[in-house]
Structure formats: C-alpha cells, structure tokens
Amino acid sequence: MAKNLDFEQEKVISTIQYYGNNSSATIPIAMDTAVKDGRQITNRLSCVFLFTHNIS
C-alpha cells in the first residue's frame, strides 16, 4: 500500500514480518517499534493506516 501511495520507505513502519497479523495490536506495536528504532514520533502529526483481515 505504501509503495502504491508513493510513501518514502523510511517513513513506513511495517511489523508483519516479525509479528504476523495481530489485528488491533498493530498500531501500538508499530509505535513501539518506531521508538525502539530511534524514530521521532512525538510532537509530530502522524497518519496511521491499519489493514487487517481475520478469518474465524
């Protein structure tokens, strides 16, 4: 999705390769990953996209 929208890859946080599809936990995990990677996310406007698909 980010590639199709022409987002810079260094501004994209993707955790699916580490945690798989985790539904509602995706945003907190992504924010934690960004902080641990040293990305500045405080005092900034962030746009968050969450895509999930559950099969029960």
UniProtKB/TrEMBL annotation:
<feature type="domain" description="Beta-ketoacyl-[acyl-carrier-protein] synthase III C-terminal">
    <location>
        <begin position="1"/>
        <end position="39"/>
    </location>
</feature>
<keyword id="KW-0808">Transferase</keyword>
<protein>
    <submittedName>
        <fullName>3-oxoacyl-[acyl-carrier-protein] synthase III C-terminal domain-containing protein</fullName>
    </submittedName>
</protein>
<dbReference type="InterPro" id="IPR016039">
    <property type="entry name" value="Thiolase-like"/>
</dbReference>
<dbReference type="Pfam" id="PF08541">
    <property type="entry name" value="ACP_syn_III_C"/>
</dbReference>
<dbReference type="InterPro" id="IPR013747">
    <property type="entry name" value="ACP_syn_III_C"/>
</dbReference>
